[in-house]
Amino acid sequence: MSEQQQWTITANEQPSEWFIEAVKEYTPASSGLYAAQLLWQRGIKDRQQLTAFINYKAYQPASPFEFGQEMHLAIARLQQAYNTKEKIAIWGDFDADGITATSVLWDGLGQFFAQNTQLIYYIPNRLKESHGLNNQGIDNLAKQGCKLIVTCDTGSTNLEEIIYAKQLGIDVIVTDHHTLPTERPPVAAIINPRYLPKEHQLFNLSGVAVAYKLVEAIYQSLPNVAKYPLEDLLDLVAVGLIADLVQLSGDCRYLAQMGIQRLQEDFKQPAAARRRPGVGRLLELCQKSGDRPTDISFGLGPRINAVSRIQGDASFCVELLTSRDVKRCNELAEVTELANARRKSLQKDVQAQVAQKLTQLDLSTTSVIVLEDAQWPAGVLGLVAGQVAQETGRPTILLSTEGAEEQGSRGAGEQGSRGAEEQGSNSSPLPLRPSAPLLARGSARSVNSVDLYQLVKDQAHLLHRFGGHPFAAGLSLLVENIPLFTAAINQQLRQSLGSTTLMPTVQADLTVTVADLGKELFLELKLLEPCGMGNPVPKLLIQNCWFENAWHRNQQDWQGKKVQYIKAEFDIRDDSSRSGFPGLWWGHYKDELPIGRCDCIAELDYNTFKKRYEIRLIAVRPSANSALNASRLTPLILDLRNQEHSALSTQHSLNPSYPLIEDCPTNWDDLRIWLRRCLAISRSTPGFDNQQQLAIAWSKPNHQPPNQIWLTLVGIAKYLSRTNQLVTRVQLLKKIGISDQTLLVGIKALKYFGFIVKRQDHYLQITWHPSDSAENRADEAVARFLAAVREEQFQQQYFAEVPLSTIVAIASYET
């Protein structure tokens, strides 16, 4: 799915000597040079900046009342509600930022208003309502007697819904950080950091941080009321901030640093003594300890987000994050973990389908990737679109028409409803025809150089709804408008880019050696945490290195049935050290690692589960010599995969001399045998004109379910036993459609059911003598066979879609 990457190295301006010495004060075990280089690159160039950046205790956070008159109006309205005992509803959002924001208001305002009687919360269903206020939910709150709605992480542009609430006698306080409305809505107050100057230390606050500032203001305005300290909310603030990928500068960084410390302190307590047992249990389930930002970005955040993506309703997540009932929290954490496992499975399925559709696109003429499918679940489209955008270097929009007819029939009756990530839209819903038109709904993700929100906004006349920000957007449009939208948005971006070519880019911050890797460098780089937008995780370039002791494994889903993802583990070496350093490469087989010398870009990390320092491989490419070999190999391999049989025959008839591999391999060794033969012939042939070509011509396999394959094997064995016929191994393999190795596992399983398999010359003889003596072990043997079939099918699926560039690269490593 990916194409050749462009590697860039950050300009390495040498920091001043005094600055290096200042940084070294924080890294007594090392020189501090690498940390100083990074901080200098990122604009930290004086002692005061350095101190405030590293030590949150030296940072002076902004007062919540720097939001000005709007914060004063919000507090006045809350005090009125406090004095008259009005009922208040928190209107949240269903992503991690919105869930944690709701939880902060629930716990924070809950110190002043009785929970469940005076104070309630409402979170829209992602799959039915989507983002933002909607009239149906407002009606529901009105029936419950609510007089005030406090939004969090949403609401800035819900002008019609705010007016509707006002007509019902409900005031609205908006706390949000998304796109501003064109005019101030008729609210009691609107607290949005986008009203502040861009250089203000509060400007980058996420939804949860804005909610925290509101709670901080009421703590100051009504002192001596709250029973619990304000700082108890900071762990939730850190989770929302880091999960939402906002720029961690100013108060964002300060709040995240404070929150991570709180998170770690609470996790160290016994489960029964934790303030947030639900958070602690989630950390345990993802094998994290809460002391690293990555524990949130790779652990807590995805799990909280998964609930609404899979179930739609994520309301129970607030209870998970705020309840002190250990038993109840454990139950909810398990439900969350299962939702995340299901999310992984769905995401993997959609990724595979998107990869297949991408093979039909000419990326050289495509500026914006727009793909649709009726079967794609909308909840995971943003995740997949982000991965495709990163791998291709192009903005990516994925659309689902799943349930489109039903969506169309609801039409404009869903006032205020937004598509996935559609918050902050300045547009209003376009009128739909009364004939229930089909709506496609989807998510878009961009690359750094392209303002995706503006791209989508310029096509508003073709859309039903849209919204978002420069890097992510959500949209919905009539299915019949998709071709026109695709052509228009591509033309628009091509015109704006001119001669610029979009391609995936990986940037390295520092050049290091394997000898540099380890605890000292890790502690240096840790000074920059928490990392995020504007302060990314440092990327390390390691040149002229190689890999040893590589192996890979497949991770299965929570039921142990379906392969979820793969990862390769290895030791990296170079000439700087006599020993290797451990690392892993997510989503790749060990065979994709180069055999010769190469360059790589990686992140240095600490694995709390294995208690070791390791690198996480980001990108790898052959060194100069290996790259030359790859360019010489390219003409040798002809990719004829997934072609019609007639087209394949025509291709081969033009040059019948080259080998044609039509059976899909299950490992790289199957393919390497053929590659070595062609390379040997080519090397013995002068010049390139007569080089031996190898054609890979297998098609995407049409697999039977593993259980059906087992039943077929048993049926054949019974038939051969009854008729006393012999069969060759090749005949058996062709009939069942499995490999030799998997057949051997199946034969072993047959023996537990009373089958006896004997070899006679080139034939197999199978007889059956039923017995119950090994029944218990038979189930285990069948399970091993089914697992072998699943693994084989997974590998074949991989080889049906692996890019030719990967095959060429692996071949080049062999030479």
Using only C-alpha atoms, the radius of gyration works out to 30 Å
Oligomeric state of shown chains: single chain
End-to-end separation in angstroms reads 25 Å
Strand residue content: 15-25%
Helix fraction, binned, reads: 40-55%
List keywords for this structure.
815 residues; alpha/beta; five-stranded mixed beta sheet; 27 helices; 24 strands
Summed up, what is this model?
With 815 residues, this protein is an alpha/beta fold. It has 27 helices and 24 strands.
What do you see in this structure?
With about 800 residues, this protein is of the alpha/beta class. About 40% of the residues lie in helices and about 15% in strands. The chain contains 27 helices and 24 strands. A five-stranded parallel β-sheet has the order 3-2-4-5-6, sandwiched between helices. A hairpin with a 7-residue loop joins strand 15 (about 565-575) and strand 16 (about 580-585). The longest helix has about 35 residues, at about 325-360. The chain is globular, with a radius of gyration of 30 Å. Mean pLDDT is about 85; it is low at about 405-435, about 555-560, about 625-635 and about 685-690.
